[in-house]
Amino acid sequence: MHPADSGTEQVAPEADVLVVGYGPVGQVLSILLAARGWRVVVVERWETPYTLPRATSFDGETARTLASLGVGGSFAELGLPADGYDWRNADGRSLLRVELAERGEHGWPETTTMHQPALEAVLCARAEQLPGLRVFRGYTATDLVDDGNGVELTAKDTSGGRLRCTASWVVGCDGANSFVREHVGVDRTDLGFSFDWLLCDVVLHEPRVFSPLNVQLCDPARPTTAVGSGPGRRRWEFMRLPGESVAELNRAETAWRLLERFDVRPENATLRRHTVYRFQAAWADEWRRGRVLLAGDAAHLMPPFTGQGMCAGIRDVLNLSWKLDLVLRGAAGEGLLDTYQRERSDHVREAIDTSVRLGRVLCVTDAAAAASRDASLLAGADTGRGRRNGAGTRLRTGLLYTGIGTAPVPPAGEVLPQGRVRHEGVTGLLDEVVGTGPVLLGSADPGAALEEPRLAFLAALGTRVVHMVPTDTEVTPGAVVDVDGVYLPLLRAVRARFLLVRPDHHVYGAARTSRELRELVDQFGSGLWE
C-alpha cells in the first residue's frame, strides 16, 4: 500500500505485531508471524523495493529458514551454490580456505550466493499470499509510544500524509540507522573496527566460471574481495588505501581501472553500481525494551568477511517469531521474550569477533606486516585449510533443558541437522515432510511414552511427534523413515531415545527413558512461564 494524499491521516488496521523495515529480515519475520495467523502491519520508508543488492549470500541454516517459508523452489533462479571461500596472498597462495559442501548439515548448500533484489521479490510474492499481512510503503517513522499495554507508531510520507499504527508489539528491523533503536534510546557498543571499501556490482556479458567462487585477496597493495552475487553477477570490493580520498576512490574510472586486473572491462561487463561504504562492528546493548524489540542491523552490525550480516538477522527473527507466537497465544509469559537477546547475543558476538579477526587478516596495507602474516599462516599457525562449515552455533543459555542443575545438559542447545526422511510414501527433507514447529522425535514412539495431558500440552504448541525408524525395518503406521541415516545415529551418539527440538531447530533437551521424557516436557512447559 502506498502513501496517502498530502495532509491526510490514514489509520492502519490494528495489528498483533508491527514491523518497521521491510528488507529481508523484516520480510522473514512478517511472513513467519502472518503464516501463524497473526495480524502483521509493516511500515517501510521506501516506496518501491530497492533494486540494488546489499547482501550477496546466505548460509545453509538461512536457506532452511527461507525454505520453510515456501520459497525454496526459487533458489536455483536467484542463487548459485559456492564451492569454497579462499583467502590468498598477493602471490596467489592460499592462506585460509573453507570448503563449502553443495549439500550441508541443513540439507541445503552451505553457502548460496544470490541477487538480493531477486530474493526480496520472491519474499514479497510469498507475503502477498497471506491475508493477515499489510505493508505500507513510503512512510518514514516519526514517533513511537509504548504505554505498557501496546504500541503506537506515527509515520509520514513525502507529501506530509500521516499514518497511525497500533499493535501489541513492535519490532525494529529498520537497519543500521534504526529509528526504533534511536527513539527508545538504546545505546550501542562499537568496537571501532571500520574501513572504507569501494563496492562494484558487475553483470558479466558472457558466462564465466570462478572456482572457488568466493575469494579474499590479501594484497597489501590493494586488499580486494571477489564474490559471487547470484547467476551471471559478481561483486568486487577494493579497500581504500591510506592517503586515498573517498572522492577519488568512488569514481567509475577508478572502478574500471581496478576491475581490469580481473579481465572485467566495459566491453565484457556492465558496472551496475559503484559506491564507497564503511563497515562497522557494533551491537545494541538492549534488544528489548518493554514492548519494543530490535532485530537484524538495528541490533548488530558486523564486517562482511563471514557473510553473516543478513543471516544473523534472519536467525534473530526465527528465534523471536516462535516466542512472540506463544506469548500472543497466551501459551507463554512475556518473560520468554527476555531469552531472545540472551540466546542470540552470544551468536552475534561470536560472528562479529570472527569477522573482525578475519578483517585484521585482510585489511593490511603494510608490506612487511603482510609478509609476517603470510609466513605465520602458511606455516600452519592458523590456516583453517580444509575447514568445513558446521550445522550451526550451539546455544549456551536460555530456554534449554538443565535437568536438576542450572546449566544446559548436552546436547541441549545444539542445532538439529536436516536429512531426508520418508513418511506415508513421501520422501523429502525433514522440515518438508514432518513440518516446522517444535519436534519431539525418538527411536521409540514418543506418543506411547507420554500420558494424555503431556501430549495435549505438546499438541497445543503445534508439536510434531515423530517415531523415527531405520530404512531396513518394517514401517509401522505413522512412523517416519530415517532415509539418510541422520537421526537414529544422532540419538545413539548422545545416548538418548528422545529429543525435543525447538521451532528454531535448537535441541531443547534429550531423554533416555520415558520418565526422563516426562521430566523434560514438564521443564519445557514451566520454562515458558519463567
Question: How much of the sequence is in beta strands?
Answer: 25-35%
Q: Note the total helix count.
A: 15
Helix content: 25-40%
Shape: globular
Average pLDDT over all residues: 94
Low-pLDDT ranges: 381-391
Radius of gyration: 24 Å
Structural class: alpha/beta
The number of distinct β-strands equals 30
Descriptive terms for the model:
15 helices, eight-stranded mixed sheet, globular, single chain, alpha/beta, nine-stranded mixed sheet, 530 residues
Summed up, what is this model?
By secondary structure, this protein is an alpha/beta fold. The chain is 29% helix and 27% strand. The protein has 15 helices and 30 strands.
Question: How would you describe this structure to a colleague?
Answer:
The chain contains 15 helices and 30 strands. The protein is an alpha/beta fold and 530 residues long. Strands 1, 2, 3, 9, 10, 11, 12, 20 and 21 form a 9-stranded mixed β-sheet that branches. α1 packs parallel to α4 (116-127) and α1 (24-35) runs parallel beside α8. The longest helix is centred in the middle third of the chain and has 25 residues, at 338-362. The chain is globular, with a radius of gyration of 24 Å. Helix content is 29%, strand content 27%. 48% of the residues are buried.
